[in-house]
Amino acid sequence: MSGDGELMMTILASFAQEESRSISENVRWRVKKRFEKGIPNGRFRIYGYRWKGNQLVVKPEEAAVVRFIYANFLKGVSAETTEKQLEEQGVKSFNGKHFGNSSIRMILQNITYTGNMLFPKEYIADPITGKSKINRGELPQYFVENTHEAIIPMEIYKKVQDERERRKKLGALANGSINTCCFTSKIKCGICGKSFVHTVRKKLNSEEDYWSCCSHKKKGRTCCSKGGIPHQVLVRECTKVLGLAEFDEKIFLSRVDKIVIPEQHVMVFHRESGEQITRQTMGFHGTEGLLDS
């Protein structure tokens, strides 16, 4: 391990790294040519199908589960509720294990169930680390039609994607299995960007009902936000900002995009019209009123 030896090791390591990258580029080129011809790269595993030679063949009992998942989603049933139903029915995943809601969500966005293929969905960003990333347009994608028998019609798949996008915009409000209200996902921490959550803290003869950054509930939190907003203060100030005699959830949802808490004692209302209204207070956990800034 002399100086010359370390230099030689560094040079050899550089050669090895470049060789690895060169091999990776050659493999990527061959895979790309396969994709251009509509040939998938290997036999991937997918619930509802099995490979027979080079062809995907429908597995009837699993295909029925896939149709059940899609039908449930269009009825407004959450992935968590579908997960419980599948567990009650004794349905297992591809590996014979518990059918989790994450697997259900993956099935709902997999276009392979329409009888078509889209690839590559993932790619290796760095051949040295070997970590894969979801292809969000970094690499060209190839859509190949009618490669195998469909389980889900394309029109149903498109309806599901539209509904997924709609629920994504609603956030937690779209999930019926979660106890939500009009403020859910609407109040954002100006420091870490995460949502405020509703908390009820019991005292000796009373309860403290307030909203605070969700990072406060996690171990090793890095957010330094302080204080919480009493629920009654939040309702009162929303009523004032909206110019109402009494609070109305529907009007709040239609007029307020979000409420940002950039620092303690400050609330910034972002209205759907683009207008921003800042309100200040001497303390969220007090009886002090809020003042227009």
Strands, total number? 14
H and E string: HEEHHHEEEEHEEEEHHEEEE
The CATH class label of the largest domain is: Alpha Beta
Largest sheet: 5 strands, mixed
Could you state the CATH homologous superfamily of the largest domain? Putative Large Serine Recombinase, Chain B, Domain 2
For the residues shown, what is the average pLDDT? 81
Question: Which structural class fits the helix and strand makeup?
Answer: alpha+beta
- Give the helix level as a range of percent: 25-40%
CATH topology of the largest domain: Hect, E3 ligase catalytic domain fold
Shape: extended
Task: Give the strand order, joined by hyphens, for the main sheet.
Answer: 7-11-12-13-14
- Tally of helical segments: 7
**Can you tell me the residue ranges where pLDDT is under 50 for at least 5 consecutive residues?**
286-293
N/C terminus separation: 67 Å
Rounded to an integer in angstroms, the radius of gyration calculated over CA atoms is 26 Å
| Percentage beta strand | 15-25%
Q: What count of domains describes the coordinates?
A: 2
Quickly give the CATH architecture of the largest domain. Answer: Alpha-Beta Complex
